[in-house]
Structures
1.
Amino acid sequence: MAEETPWQQALRYANRANPYPFYEELRKTPVAPQPDGNYVVSTYQEVVQLLHDTRVTSDGRKRGVPFSNPFEGTVITTDPPEHDVDRRRMMRHFGPPECPHMIAGFEPEIRRIFGELLDNLTGKTRIDLVDEFAFPGPVTVICKVLGVPLEAIPSFHGWIETALDGLDFGPEANDPEQQRRAAAVPDAVTALRQYLGDLIGQYRKQPGPGMLSGMANDDGPEGPLSQESLVNNAMLMLFAGHETTVNLIAHSVMSLLRHPDQLEKLRRRPELIVPGIEEFLRFESSVQLWPTRSALEDVEIAGTTIPKGAPIFLCYGSANRDSERFENPDKLDLERPDNQHVGYSQGIHYCFGAPLARLEVQIAVGEFVRRVENPRLVEDPPPYRRNQIFRGPRHVWVDIDGIRE
Amino acid sequence: MTLPATVAELVRDFRANGRIVIVGASLAGLRAAEALRDEGFTGSLTIIGDEPHEPYDRPPLSKQVLKGWVPADHTQLPRLRAVDAQWRLGVAATGLDRATRQVRLADGEHIPYDRLLIATGTRARQWPNPTEAALEGVYTLRSRDDAARLQQALAARPSRVLIIGAGFIGSEMASVCRELDIPVTVAERGSAPLVGALGGVIGKIAAEMQRDHGVDLRCGVGVSSLEGDASGHVRRARLSDGTTIEADVVVASLGSIRNVEWLEGSGLAAGFWGIGCDAGGRAFDINGVVTDTVYVAGDVARQPHVLYEYQFLAMEHWDNAVLGAEVAAHNMVNLDPDYYPYLLLPSFWSGQFGVNIKSVGVPPFGDEIVFTQGSVKERRFAAAYGRRGRIVAAVTFNNGKWLEHYARLIEQSAPFPPPPPGWDQPEDMNPMPAEFPAPGVPTAIPDVVLTGHDPSERRAEFRPRRR
Ligand SMILES: Cc1cc2nc3c(=O)[nH]c(=O)nc-3n(C[C@H](O)[C@H](O)[C@H](O)COP(=O)(O)OP(=O)(O)OC[C@H]3O[C@@H](n4cnc5c(N)ncnc54)[C@H](O)[C@@H]3O)c2cc1C
Ligand code: HEM
C-alpha cells in the first residue's frame, strides 16, 4: 500500500484533535493533487486566489463526475448570476440594506439565552461545555431567527448528526462502519427537507415570525425564491447557522483554558473579546475545509495545473495557520494585528451569517469568561466528532468552582 | 561603532527626539500621525490644518450627508490610536523655508521641523467667473461646511438643481437629487458622465443610468454663464448650445486644485498636478533631486508607479491617502535599506443611482475594454481595461466582490483580454476601444491622472480654462 499523503493523514479520525502537524507538511505543496483526483489547497495565498478566480465553480453539477452533497441547490453550491440573486433574496430578511437592525435587534435575546444557560449551571462542579452551553445557545438563536419551533430541535438535531457523521473524504470512507453511517445520510436529509418543506408550507398559509415566513411570503424586486431553493437554503441556514457556531464557542473556551495568559488578559480587558473571537476562529477554524469547488478550465497555480473538471478542496484550517501569512501562526494572540483569516471564507460565498455568529460568540465566550469561576479542562484533548469539515469536540468536560452573578 | 550600528543609533535617536510637522489635518495627515506613533516615534509631533475642524471623512459628504441621513458634523474620522500631537487647527501654513527647516503659519509663527509631511490635499475648483460664483445658490463641494450648506439648500426643495460637471462627485450629487425627488440637470462638456475616469464605453452606461433615473443629462455642452435675480440669487444658466436652464441651485463640480501655493519659493517640485515625490513619499526638488526631510502623501502627492511604466500618478482616492500616509510615515522614521515603497494599486468606489461602482488600476492607461462578467443590461458586470496586450485596470458595477481577482491579474501584468469566466458570461466578450477622450479634450477631470515622467513637472503650468 502506498504511503498516505499528509492530507489523508489529516483526515483520519485519530488526528481530528490535532491535524496541524499534517497541515504543516501539506503546505510544502500549496496545491497538492491527491490519489483520488482531488486538488487540495492549503496555503493562504493560494486559497484566497482561488476564492476570487472566475474559472472556479461551486456548482457540483458542473464537474466531470457530478458531486452530490446535502447542500445541493443552495447559494453555497451555485455560481453567479443565480447565486447573487438568491443571496439577495435571502439577505433582504437578514441584513442591510433592507434589514439593517435585524441582528442588533436580537442582542438582548441572545444575552438572555446564554445568561440563562449559565444560570442553569449554578451548583454544578463539572459541566459539559458542549451539551450544556455551546450547543443549546446557537441552536435556540437560529431557530428564533428562522422561525423554527424549538420543539423540533431534538428531531432535526438527530438528522443533522446522522448527515454529519456519514460524510467522510478520507481514507476511512470505505471502512464498513463508515459505509453504514454513509448509508443513513439520504434518509436523514430527506426527513429534514420534508420537515422544513412542511413548515414553510404552513407559513405560506399563515405567516408567522422569522425569516422563513418572511422569505416564503416575499415578493421582492427580484421575485420570490422558488419553493425548492427556499427549502434547500432553509436547510443550509438551519444547519450552517448553528453547527459552526457551536464548534467555535467550544473551541474558544478550550483555547482560553489551554492558554491561561490569554484568559487572564481577557479577564482584565473584556473588550478584547472582539478581536479575540477572530483569533479563536483563525486558531481553530469551525469550517476546516470546503469541498464544493472545481475547475472549469485548466487553472495554473503555484506551479501546478488543476485540470478542467477536477475537484478543489480549500483547506481554511491550514491557510489560517500559514506562517507565510501569519507570524507565529501556532501562537494564540488575542491582539494579533492584521488578522485577515479565512475562517468565514472570502469573495462571493463569504459567510452569510458572519455578523450573527460574531455577536453570538462574543456574548457567549465573553459571558463564560466573566461568570464561570476557575474553569479547568478535565480531559485534553476531549473526544471529537467525526466530521472533517465541521470540526469540533463532542464533549468538553470542564470542572468549575461556581457561577458568578 | 560599525556603520550599521551608527545607523541604528541615528534611527533610535530620531524616533526619541526628532521633531515632525504635518501640514494638512485631514485623512492623510491623521493616518500618518497614527502610523508614526505605531512606528515607535515618540518625539514631538505638530499637526497644522487650516480648517477649524478635527479630521473628518469626505466620501460621505456627497452621499449620506447630502441625503440628510448623517449630519455634516457627524463625519469625524475614527481615531485608530492616540497620537499625542500638538494640533494647530484653523491656521494655514503659508510658507516653507527648507534652509532653516521651518514652516511659516498665517499667524506669523514659525514652526521648526526635522521631518515634514505635506498632506494639504486639494480644494474644489470654483466657478471661474467670480461675480457669478458669488451669486447665492451657487455651490461647490469639498468640505464639511460646503456639504452642510448644500444639504440645507436641497432640503429646501429647490425647483431644479443644475450640476456642472459629471465626474464621480457630480454624478453622486445628481443621484442624491433624484433620490430626494428633486429635478436635476447635469451639464457635462465631455461626451458622457465619468468619461475621463472610465472612458466612453462605460460613460454610455453611466449616462443611461442617469437618464433612467430622470436626470436631465446634457453632454457635449458647456455652461457659458450664470444669471441671478435682483436679490442676487442664481436663477438661470446659459449653455454653449444656446439653450437656458432655470435652476435655483447650481453646483460647480469642476474637479479640484492642488493646494500647493503655500510652497511657492520652497524649491520643491510643486505644480498643477501636485508635488512630485519618489515611490517612498520623499519629495523631489525642482531639479529632480530627492529631499531627505520633506515627504508627501494623499491627494497632493504625485509619484511614480512601477506598474504604469514609472509614470507619475496623481490620485484623488481615499485609500491612496491612507496607504501613502502609512508609507511616508514609515520612511520618515527609518533609513535605507528599511524604506518601504508605495505599491498600492489605485482603487476607487462610488455609489450612484443604486449602483455600487468600483475600479482598480488606472483605467485611462488602457485603450481597450472588454466586458468580462455579468450583464450590462442588468447593470451588474465587470470589465477589464487593456493596453498592448496586458490588463491594466478593471471596473465593476454591482459586482465588487470580484475586484480582487482583477487586482491580482493587474499586479501580475496578466494578458488582455483575461481568460473568460466559467459562468455568468456577458453576451459580447470582444475587446473594443475604451474611448477615453484624447488629451486636451475638455471633460470633467478624472481622478487618477498619469502625469508623465518628469519629476518636477515644469512643463505643466496652471492655465485657467476658457469657457
Ligand atoms: C465629496 C467627496 C466625495 C468623495 N468620495 C470618494 C469616494 O467615494 N471614494 C474615494 O476613494 N474617494 C472619495 N473622495 C476623495 C477622498 O476624500 C480624498 O482622496 C481624501 O480626502 C484625500 O485626503 P488628503 O488628506 O490627501 O487630502 P484632503 O482631504 O484634501 O485634506 C487636506 C487638508 O489640508 C488642508 N490644507 C490645505 N492647505 C493647507 C495649508 N496651507 N495649511 C494648512 N492646511 C491646509 C485642507 O484644508 C484639508 O483639510 C471624495 C472626496 C470628496 C470631496
Ligand atoms: C462561527 C460561525 C460560522 C462560520 C465559521 C461559518 C463559515 C462559513 C464559511 C467558511 C462559508 C463559505 C463556504 C465556502 O467556501 O463556500 C460560509 C457560508 C455560509 N454561511 Fe456561514 N459560518 C458561520 C456561521 C453561520 C451562521 C450563523 C449562518 C446563519 C445564517 C451561516 C450561513 C451561511 C450561509 C447561508 C453561507 C453560504 C453563503 C454563500 O454561498 O453565498 N453561517 N460560512
2.
Amino acid sequence: MTDEPLLSLESVDTYYGPIHILQGLNLNVRAGELVCLLGGNASGKSTTLKTVLGLVNPRNGTVRFGGEDVTKRSTSYRIRQGMAIVPENRRLFAPMTVLENLQMGAYLHAGGTKEDFDRVYELFPLLHERRAQLAGTLSGGEQQMVAMGRALMAKPKLLLMDEPSMGLAPILVERSFEIIKQVHESGVAMLIVEQNANVSLSIADRGYVLSTGRLVLEGKADDLREDEGLRKAYLGR
Amino acid sequence: MDGDDRDIPPIPASPAEAHAPRVGVDEWVASVAERREGYSGVLGRARSELERVPRPVFYAAFGVAAALLPAITSDGYIVRVGFDTLLYMLLALGLNITVGYAGLLDLGYVAFYGFGAYGYAMLASPKFGIHWNTLAIVPVVVIATAILGLLVALPSRRLLGDYLAIVTLFFGQLFVAVYTNGERMSLFGLTRSHDVTGGPNGIPNVDNFNVFGGRIGSLQAYYYVALGVFLLVLLVVFLIDTSRTGRAWKSLREDPLAAELMGMPVNRLKLIAFAAGAAVAGLAGTLFAALNTAVFASDFDVPTLIIIYAILILGGAGSIGGVILGALVVNISLEVLRTPGHATWVFYVTILATLLMALRPWRVLALVLGGTVAFGYAAHAIVAAAWPRGVHGSPSVGGWFGSGLSGWELHPSNPRLIGNITFIALVLAVLALTLLSGWKRWAAMIPTLYLAGFVWENRLVVEPSITRLILVGVILIVLMNARPQGLLGTARVEIV
Ligand SMILES: Nc1ncnc2c1ncn2[C@@H]1O[C@H](COP(=O)(O)OP(=O)(O)OP(=O)(O)O)[C@@H](O)[C@H]1O
Ligand SMILES: [Mg+2]
C-alpha cells in the first residue's frame, strides 16, 4: 500500500489522571485530505488534537505522522515535522502586532519569506491592512484570521483546527470555511474539529463523529450528511 | 421533520460576487483616516512628530547628554551619582532581558551582580596576589556569570512563575550567606579551611581598571567607562529586541504554550534569557568593584534588588527607554530624599499631586485642601494656647514654606513617643478612609492629611534612611495607579 495516511491514530487511549477520555480511537488523515471531527461538548475533540500534538500522551496506542511513530516524540518535534494548529480560543500573542504574530508562526522558517507572507495576505487581505495593529485589540473574527494566517505561515503538511467557527457570525462562518477550502485546495491536509457539522461536512472529504471519547460514526462527508442519526443529533433536522 | 428542502446553504463561488460582508477585506482600515482622533494643539503636534523619530535617535541623544555631565560640572558628588545611575541602568537593562522580555521572575538577580564584583575583586587584588589585566578579567567574569546563570536556571527551567521566583530568591540569599561566611571555607569539611571571600570584611584594596598598563583612577574616567559599557550593552539589547529571538522571548512571556506550538525551543530560549541577564549583571559587578576598590556581600542583598526592580517596573518592563527613565527617576529621587529638607518638599508635593489627580470634582478638592489648611491653623492655635510645649519645635524646612508650616503643623519639643503613637493612628486612619465613602470620606480626609503631615514632621524626618524608602514606595504606588504599565511601557492587552 503506497496510500499510507499522513496521520494515523491507532487504538489510542488517552487519560487525564484516572479519567479515561479517548477510548480506543482509530482515526486517520491522508495527505491533502480535509477531515472533520464532530462531536458534542466534552466528547473529546480537543483531547484528540492534543494527543495528535503530544500535549497529552496516550496510555495505549500509536500516533503516526508521515509514516513515523511519533507517540513518544515531543510536541516541538511533531511541529518541526510539519504539524501546525489553530488552537481553541486562538491564543494570539496579544501585545504583539499582527505582523509579529505572523512572523512567530514562521519561527521555524526564520520568520518567513516574502512569498509566505504574500500567500497569507492573499487569503486574508485584512491581515496586510492591519499588520501594524496589536493582535489583542482586534475583534474576535479578525483574531481568528490572524490565528489561521499564523498557522499557515509555518507551511504545515497537516493543519489542525479547533473550532475555527467559534464566535463568528453565521455569514462569517461560511466565509471562513470558504478560506479553509481554498487552503485545502492548495494541498494542505487538515483535521478540523467542529461543532458546526453542517458547514464543515459541506467542505470536508471525510468525517468522524465522537461521543464521550468513542467514535460512533465515520465515513465520507456526503454519506454522513445523509445519515439519519447524525442529522438528528447535530444537524438539527 | 420535513427537512430535505432546507438544503445546506451553497457556498458562493467567489467572495467578490457575494453581497455579504467582505471578509478579509478591511472596511475599518479604509475609513481609518476619518476615524482617527488627531492629536490637536501644539503639544499634540509635538507628540505625533516625536512618535515618528526612530528609537535609536533617543538613545544617542541620551548618550550625548550623559557624556556632557562631567563637562558641565566638576562636582565629584554629582558625577558619582551619575556613575551610580549608569550602573543601575546597566543592571536594569540586564534584568529587562530576563524579566521584561522573557517574563522570568528572577529574584536572585543581585547575586549575579555580586558574583561579578567578587570575581573581579578576586582576580585583581592582593587577596590572592592575582593582578590580571582588566581586558582579561572582564570577559572571564562575564562568561563565568553567564554559566552560573545557566546552572541556576537549569534545574528551575521547568519551574514557572512563582516557583522560579522562590528558587531564585533562595539562590540570592544563599549567595549572601556564603559570601559573608566565606572566610573559613573547606570542601565538605575535608580540606583545611581557607579564606575565600574575606567574610564580613569583604575584599579590600581591589585594583582599579588597568588597560594596557594604564590605570583608570579618576571618577570622571569611570563615569565614561560606565557610559560606554552601558551604551554598548544597550545597542546589543536593542538589536536582540528587534530580532527573531527578541520576539520569541516576548511571545514566550505572553503564552508559553502557544510559543511551543509555533515550534519555539521554549526551554532553550528561557535559559538564554536567564544567562544573558546574569552576564550583564556580572559585567556591572566588575565596574562596581573597580570603582569602589572593595566589595562586601551586604552590597548585593535585597535592598539593591528592590531598587533595580523599582527602576524596571517604574520605567515599564520590556522597554529600553523605560530603563533609562526609570533609573533617572528612582536614583535621583533617592538622592534628593537624602536631605530632610528636600524630602519634606517631595512629601508635600507628592501628596498634593496625588490629591490633584485623584480628587474630583474640583469642589471637593478645594474643600479638602482648604479644610486641611484651616484645620491645621485652628489646631495650632488651640494647642498653642492650651499646651505651649506642643508647638515648641521647628519644621524640617526653612524659607517661606517652613514659616508657613510652623504656624500650621504642631511641633512638640519631644516628638519621639507622640510621633510613634500618631504613626499608628495614621495607619488606622488610612485604613478607615478606605472603608468610608461619599462625603464622610472627604470629611475624614482632612484630619488624616493633617495627621500625615504631623507624622512626617515629627517622626519620619528623624529617620531619613527609612523614610526615603517609604517615600519611594509611595511614589511608586501613586505612579502605578496613574500608569500601570510604567512610564514607557506599553499598556497590557488582554485577550478575553
Ligand atoms: N486537563 C484535563 N484534566 C482533566 N480533565 C480534562 C482535562 N482536559 C479536558 N478534560 C476533560 O476531558 C473531557 C473532554 O474534553 P475536550 O476538551 O476534549 O472536549 P471537547 O470535545 O473539545 O469539547 P468542546 O466542544 O466543549 O470544546 C471533558 O470532560 C473535560 O472536562
Ligand atoms: Mg474543545
